[in-house]
Amino acid sequence: MSATLGGLRLAFGALLARGFEGAAVVYGMRPLRPAPDAPLLDAAAAADGAADAGGPVLAAIQARGRLRVGVFTDRLPYTFLNREGRLTGFDVEMAHQLARDLGVALEFVRLGDRADLPTVLETGAIDVAMTGVTATPERASRMLLSEPYLDETLAFVVRDHLRDDFSSWARIRELGALTVVALDVPYYVAEVRLRAPSLRVVIENPRVIERGLALATADAVILPAESGSVRTLLYPQYSVVVPDADVVRVPLAYPLARRDLRFRPMGRCLE
Questions:
Q1: In terms of Cα–Cα distance, which of 97, 77, 98, 99 is closest to 87?
Q2: Would you list the DSSP string of 237-269?
């Protein structure tokens, strides 16, 4: 196993040193619909939004004439920076549509630590986070979430020759104490440990996984199939595998500012 893992590291190092057309495809993406440029602000620059914190969210948006949308800039394929430094992705398109529906301009606010999201929402620095946030019970207890707009599917990103080993939970259990890397999403981790308790699950920083580096030190990475598929464009000798017979799905939703229930129906206008 150590020799195989060593070979994996060497192969991955060589992969990072080479250029692939898939990276040009991913980071060459642009918004589908023409839209006015929306500035990307740091959280400190949007701090004056706290002055609006006393009233309804929709009233604050209309009064300032701008919708403030919080994003992580490394959340492929929902919100990420293309090679021109322009914010791109599925949720970027949705944010532009929401601003059009409200008849206001759009500002994006770059979010920092994921754990700080409830605080940023509570202060009013942003009106909504539209950046591929999974709707877990823990998050629902700390933030008001829109209705789900998309389901993600739990999957493993693995080297091509390991695809069959991860094709079912029964086969995964046969692997024993294999090391896999995961995001710090307790729901995902709990579901994997329930089905394959012998796996050694290592929690990794999201930015490390987003850059693909976690694959250099692990046999597999637990990622949603929807975002894992993008990695296979960047790193073509890896595949996305969804274990069959027991598919795990997790909804995505938009966290809304200040638990304002009057703003919650806005999630439905994007369906």
A1: 77
A2: TEEEE--BSS--EEEEE-EEGGG-TTTGGGGGG
The DSSP letter of residue 168 is: B
User: Given strand 79-81, what is the order of strands in its sheet?
Assistant: 74-75, 79-81, 87-88
CB-based contacts of 164, cutoff 8 Å, min separation 6: 171
Token pair of 105 as six digits: 């301009």
For 87-140, list the strands marked E by DSSP.
Answer: 87-88, 105-110, 128-129, 133-134
The more confident residue out of 265 and 240 is 240
Coil, strand or helix at 131: coil
Please check whether residue 47 is in contact with residue 254, taking contact to mean a CB–CB distance below 8 angstroms. no
pLDDT digits (tens, 9 = 90+) for 142-160: 899 998 999 999 999 998 8
Residues sharing a CB contact under 8 Å with residue 154, sequence separation 6 or more, in sequence order = 188, 191, 192, 222, 224, 225, 242, 247, 248, 249, 250
Record the pTM.
Answer: 0.80
Cβ-based neighbour number of residue 194 at 10 Å: 11
Residues 6 or more apart from 151 whose CB is under 8 A from it? 249, 250, 251, 252
Two tokens, residue 175? 């692997």
